[in-house]
Structure formats: structure tokens, C-alpha cells
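ok, trying the design again with the full structure, not the truncated one.
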């Protein structure tokens, strides 16, 4: 990949510049969200549904699925990109679980912008998911490819 000298039509907007933010994507953590996720993924694991099982695992009660946080980060990017691009890569580091009653805010910032040999514009992102207290639950890196 090379630095961009020229951009594809429609991809050079301030929201795709280095330093621009991915808008916040906010979701409540708790049994309602966890049950929906578990139903789709057949993931009715006791630590995600039962406070006593969560406590036995060393937490204050039941806690959310890591992959649900991953999915919310993906949703944050998809909501921001719309039909203007696609997620090509997402990797996460889980630092803490979402607990019942948390409000999880996913966000990010563009850290790089490159052109691939095929002429497509690739954005590199730093992403995160935080609980309402500001505690960081997840850090992540992603690449998106803009449609041109």
C-alpha cells in the first residue's frame, strides 16, 4: 500500500480523513441483549445467564459475551460506513467483561489511510468499547475498504 496522492471519487470526505472519529455506537448490556445474542449463536452458557455462575467465575454476577462486544464494534463500523465501504479486518483484545447494567459505547478513530495496488482506499482504525464509567472493555484494530 502507498500513501494516497489521489483519491477515488467520493472517498475524499472529512469523515474519512486520518484523525476523524467513528461515531459512538451505544448499547445496554444485560440479560435482554445477552439472551438475544445467545439465541442466535446457541450460547446459553451459565456465566452469561446466571449471577451465581458469574460469581463462581470471579465476577459480581453474570457477564456479557466477548463476541457480542466484537459484534457491536462491527456494527459501529457498519453504521458509519453504510454502503460506502466494507469491513475487511477486525481484531480485538478483551480487557474486561460487560456487566449487567453497563451502557457500552463503541467508538474509534481513523489512524491511517492508504491506497492498495488495485486502487482501493484502505482506512486503518483504532477502536474501543467502554462502559459508562470510562473503563475500557475492549481495544481493537480494524481495516475498512472504501468503495470507489
Amino acid at each position: 500500500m502507498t500513501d494516497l496522492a489521489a483519491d477515488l471519487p467520493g472517498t475524499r470526505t472529512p469523515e474519512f480523513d486520518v484523525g476523524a472519529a467513528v461515531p459512538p455506537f451505544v448499547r445496554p448490556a444485560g440479560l435482554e441483549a445477552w439472551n438475544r445474542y445467545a439465541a442466535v449463536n446457541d450460547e446459553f452458557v451459565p456465566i452469561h445467564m446466571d449471577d451465581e455462575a458469574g460469581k463462581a467465575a470471579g465476577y459480581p454476577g453474570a457477564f456479557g459475551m466477548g463476541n457480542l462486544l466484537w459484534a457491536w464494534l462491527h456494527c459501529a463500523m457498519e453504521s458509519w460506513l453504510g454502503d460506502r465501504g466494507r469491513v475487511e479486518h477486525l481484531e480485538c483484545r478483551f480487557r474486561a467483561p460487560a456487566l449487567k447494567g453497563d451502557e457500552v459505547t463503541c467508538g474509534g478513530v481513523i489512524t491511517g489511510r492508504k491506497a492498495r495496488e488495485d486502487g482501493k482506499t484502505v482506512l486503518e482504525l483504532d477502536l474501543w468499547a467502554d462502559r459508562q464509567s470510562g473503563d475500557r472493555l475492549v481495544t481493537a484494530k480494524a481495516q475498512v475498504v472504501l468503495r470507489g
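Keeping the full-length input from now on. The chain has a mean pLDDT of 92.
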